Protein 1
Amino acid sequence: MRFFLIVLKNIARNPLRTVLTGLGTMVLVLVVTGIWTVLTVLDNAMADKGANIKGIVTERWQIPSQMPYSYAEGLSRGAPDKTKPDSVEVKPDDSMTWQFYGGTIDPKSRTRDAIIFFFAMDPKKINKMMDELDELKGERMKDLEASIQKMCEKRTGIIIGPDRLKSLQNVVGKQLRVGDTLTVTSMNYKGIDLEVQIVGILPAGTRHDSAAFLNRDYLTAAMDQYEGINGKKHPMANKSLNLVWLRAQNKEEFATVAQQILTAPEFSSPSVKFETASSGISTFLESYQNLIWGMRWILTPAAMFTLTLVVANAISISVRERRLEFAVLKVLGFQPNHVLLMILGEALLVGTLFAVLSAGGTWYLINKVVGGLAIPIGFFPKFMVSPFAMTVGIATGIFAAFLGAIFPAWSARSTRVAEVFSRVA
């Protein structure tokens, strides 16, 4: 305890230097925590799971995937073959279909704020199959379920993310609320414009804050209406199904369902592929691989190296100023290792304190104030700071403080009493 008090007093002797060194630590921890906030989410999304495995069915030879909507029912069941005893049928709650409908509420200017991108799907699957939304708890889940119920009762109803709602408000020039209607002019379904009503707002703080959900039955009915008016099917009629998501309980079940789908003759024109969600996401993020690699292996080490130099410089100045003090301590009975530990203790105490403050402040700022780190990568519009990212940030700050202090501390340890006193004399 006495040794700790000595270290604490030494830190307080030059508060300006201590604060400046601490601020450098805070900047490093902020940067590293932000980087690993993104990397942690992407790593988790691309990691294979052993249970509750999600798979994606897409068109094999075309991007974006465009399959006939007639595929939806068979694929949602996992293409079971009743003639085989080991055939597996996917449960209704373990599947969902996606159709992408993109439009604008301002067809004249088509600014980014005016664009609204819909997942057209069965509303009942939103809280059962959508990542993060299926993990909501308490009042947040109750609010989402209430919105889903309204969407089921009203075919024109939509559920929209809070960020997308704010963007649309910038365009219409007024606050939008539940019950308001919007006219959406389609960009990928030419000629199919929809009149929709907001029936719910997604809980904030998920990756879907900028998304919106549309009842797939409304889109199907609009395409049928198009055919009735124009006397021909819409150009997207036979390629409106974009993705089918399936969930398997384990790897064995996943493999069986994959075999059933890939060998089913009814899904051969066009042919389809079935892969794990992690594999599909990895493929989708290929264009970001260089960015992810640079964040992990260039930006993080560069930030750490910079802070190490800052700490080393600050500690070195302190050591040069205190050589007489170290000589006196040795005369009084302090061992060289005591001096070494004292200098390291000062650096580690400052590094730990400011690293914890920075990581905690980053978590509060991003998660509670800003509502997520807004770095759109693929379909991840925002990233929330995780406990792991905070841990990495704190550990990096402490390690950088140690590296920056080790050589100045060793120099202080090696102080020669006779040499110091001879200079004083």
Note: The longest helix spans residues 336-370.
Protein 2
Amino acid sequence: MKKFLRNTLFLALSILLLVVVLGGYIPFAKATAQSSDPLPSWNDGPAKQAIVEFVKVTTDKSSPKFVPPKERIATFDQDGTLWVEHPIYTQVTYNIERVPALVKAKPELANVEPFKTVLSGNRQAMAKLSIDDLFKIVVATQSGMTPQAFSAEVNQWLATAKDPRWKRPYTELVYQPMQEVLKYLRANGYKTFIATGGSAGFVRAYSDRVYGIPPEQVAGTAQPYLYGYDKNQQPILTREPKVVLNNMEAGKLENFWLLYGHRPHAAFGNSSSDDQQMLEFTNAGEGARLSVAVLHDDAKREYAYGPAQGLPDTKVGTFSQAMYDMAKKQGWIVISMKNDWKQIFSFER
């Protein structure tokens, strides 16, 4: 038995020595890791190649475009970039459904616009509500509660609410190709952030669970908090009915810098009305930069809207021809949902 064990050990050590001498062990592991496709839901093409090449040159220490780990920051818009935004933003749907409960608690709002229009149930009238009207609804329906209570309400709603087209929870309408990009970047040392025009508190309720992005890395339109005490005289924070940070348009960039103090090396968006400033500011930085704009041009599998490239015009997630031309001129990557994504949602077969 001792002779058998000795011979076995000798054979194992001999094999290990041979592998190390020939350089076969570690290179084989690397080859295996590198041969796997980090973006399997993407069709091969310029968009996919650009993302892979960006990660390669910014994480290779021998590359002149190497980015130190502490500077590897990538930011993503949410609506229309990470998940479906049509025909209306998910958060707006949530807030509209909260109006009846709000009016029950505050009956004086029943005859006040825009709450009166929402209570009427007239979808055509609601579709004509202005951005200011929607802001009034958003602020009113998510004020007067603690951050924890608001987060619990959001997650309770998300657990049962379903999109009318796909009949699935909104959290399943996340773009699988973008999920792969998030994971790919994080696997290569990038911190991933969300910069959204929506409420920071709304997105933070589920960002870690849905995207793997912790709440402290979510920047959005924000309401102030009021310090006070509950009925048991315990200190609490209460959401105030006003906006302290408007994360729309250039505010998305201004607030990102205010909160984090960095220019992202990569930015992903889709809207000329809300994401253009973030994309062009990212692209203007020194060294390797990646600005990516998602063009919704697949009416069959998702939606098609622009009006860039002759697509239907829209007030939700507008992608103007001017931004499209800017993207081409400045070397941004424009993702065609129709041509670049072989799969849009994880539940597709």
Note: Strands lie at 73-76, 191-199, 218-221, 225-229, 235-239, 266-269, 290-295, 333-336.
Protein 3
Amino acid sequence: MARFLFVVPPLVGHVNPAAGVAAELAARGHEVAWAGHEELLWQLAGPDALVFSCGLPPGAPARPPELKGPAALRFLWQDFLVPLADAMAPGVGAAIDAFGPHVVVADQQALAGGLLAEARGLPWVTSASTSAELVDPLAGMPKVAEWVGSLVADLRTRIAGGRGSADPRFSPHGVLAFTTRELLGAATLPPRVRLVGPALGSRPSTTDFPWEWLDPLRPTVLVSLGTANTEAGAGFLAAAAAAFAGLPARAVIADPGGVLGDVPPNVLVRPQVPQLPLLTRVDAVLCHAGHNTVCETLWHGLPLVVAPIRDDQPIVAAQVVAAGAGVRLRFGRADAGRVAAAVEEVLTEPSYRRAAETVAASFHAAGGSAAAAGHLEQLALESLAHVKF
């Protein structure tokens, strides 16, 4: 059996797909370890997960909610990705030394994973938890692409002794992309991208939920802006809650920041929700177009209303609309009336549900965690075949 080391950033949406793949590998008898934020990993991958703790950037600045476009991209790289890689590098190196992986699986935003794996001559695979990078968002911005390249080169010098040349976001050994063509569209992909569909595994959860509140005779919509948009989302969540005052549907709103006050009686507000089980009981989802939420929704054949905020979300929202599986709102202009109209449209127009079910069928056929694990096993076999005893 082989040993696999998963290197992930401290972001729920990036850990969850990897956790599904890791669980599949463990079920097949392989050894799995993690390098990342230990508390988050024990929460999402399970309390028995073998975790090598990695540092976080000291005093990391909070991203201003108004940042968009090039300014948001600059912040992402200069103030998050590169400092995170510097902070994680010692822990990743220690994990490689102690665990001795045959294959490293490095998230696209955990740059230290790919850089150190390549520097040590280990086969490594990129985990692309969002499809945004796959469609080359910097294609029309050559100067920005050059600037990003210089940041990566400097980072490689600092943490990997200048060894290696591959882009840490796109391993030459393979990229696991948790989507399919039915959602991604016809964009030209980098080499060795494996479209495996969503990797949905069982997730440890201590979230209580009043399941009896749901009414099977009335449609229910899940409203969520993910875990990283609390500051930016207060006004949007308030508008969403108000929108349901005039709708026959019900809403379950995830409000981790506790920003909502009084809401209509057909709206349930919870700080956390058991998203995967809940998706089997709702009729549509209103969200920020985060890749994981979108894919989990479409896996269940449910239509979407998407209101992208920043980063990859506009790209993912455009994919949803192009697939015919949802309606897009402008986040900053999504008042109660616009939200109500969009929700009513996806609930009453059957074409959205049919398109979502088409994407769902492609997701199920792609294989998800099992397909991803198969690709990783093959790479491990190739690696072990070259080991001299």
Note: The radius of gyration is 21 Å.
Protein 4
Amino acid sequence: MSTQEQPARPIEVGAAPGVERLILRYGLLALFAGVTVYFAVTEPSFRSFNNIVSILQSISIVGIIGLGVTISMVVGGFDLSIGANAGFTVMLCAICLVMFAWPTIAVVPVALLGGLLIGALNGALIVRLRVPDLLATLGMLFVLQGVQLLPSEGQSISTGLVLDGTEYTGVFTDAFLYLGRGRLFGEIPFPIIIFAVVAIVLWVVMERTRWGRQFYAVGGNLEAARLAGIRVDRVRMIAYIISGVLASLGGIILAARIGEGDVGAGSPFLLDAVAAALVGYAVLAVNRPNILGTTIGAVFLGIMLNGLTIKNFPYYTQDFVKGVVLMVALLLTFGVRKLR
């Protein structure tokens, strides 16, 4: 037998020793539960029904956009334009409602169609023209950030906007505002319902259907998926279209929540959505982008920030906390198995 040292094989989750296996599978969930219990015990207001609803409402937009970027990550890509897409949708909704006085029944389909076209353009650049995904979607980010400012000459759009001597008197209709502010049965904010429905539908599709297995096969090994007969270009195109549509859906809800076309409104959602998706890697040691993990990641970040706010931590610590949570998730995903 050769005495030459053999390269170490990676430790698979299923073969890891007891303690390491538990850490890998349940470490993030244990941290999640511990943080939640700590806030609930030390701050009675944290565990109130209204605060729980507030947390879920606050993360609904991030969650929806995060689910979109998760789909692009499943096929081995990455969509950097999601935040700008959401911001563009906010301005598009405001233009249609205030400047054109369109009804809600026309505005929502137009906004979703805009997200679909953005996703299709991203997919065409990446899949057809072979532009690297980060470069293509970064370019789209800058295009969307610029184009949303052109119709209003850089101004936010609300009732009474004056451009070139013309006053626009259209309003955000009650039906449209309900999408961001309405409550089902007078208790549950409508954005939470939308987030839950989107998450459940995507989880079923990605984890329980042939389509979902094709998406993961493409992301796992593109050439092997091609040889297996999967139409990989079509699957990748669909992934970017889904990402674009979900980003626009998040933008619609955001527009309905703030009630005006606020320039740059979507910018903060890129990093939060990506953080939720990456934290999801560590949930149950899946070590891949997944719908359940992203959902839990979004809720976890929402609970952390809400708890810190209640405990009067300075606002400028929030990014630091999100960074620490993300680093812990990455450690649990990639680092713990290197400890042996």
Note: The chain has a mean pLDDT of 89.
